[in-house]
Design goal:
This protein is mostly helical and 78 residues long. It has a domain of 54 residues. The chain is built from three helices and no strands. Helix 1 packs antiparallel against helix 2.
Length: 78
């Protein structure tokens, strides 16, 4: 899988804009059946994407642990 970053601002932006405009139109008209068929077509997961998911999960980094460094226990008041 390769992403041509040069086309993100042109072709990809236009395609995503068209997709969202169609989906929004179906939603605004209340045409649930057509919107569901339209969205399900683009969101179905095939065997290749399942392999990509497995690769991404295998390289997933652990969640960062955020700590507050200024917490302390004052023995005089506690």
């Amino acid at each position: 899988m390769k992403v041509d970053r040069a086309q993100l601002r042109t072709t990809a932006h236009e395609a995503l804009s068209t997709f969202l405009c169609k989906l929004h139109s179906y939603k605004s008209m209340g045409d649930f059946d057509t919107a569901k068929v339209f969205f399900d077509h683009y969101s179905e997961v095939d065997a290749e994407m399942l392999r990509v998911r497995d690769i991404v999960l295998a390289h997933k980094l652990p969640r960062r642990l955020e700590l507050q460094p200024n917490l302390f226990l004052d023995p005089v008041t506690h």
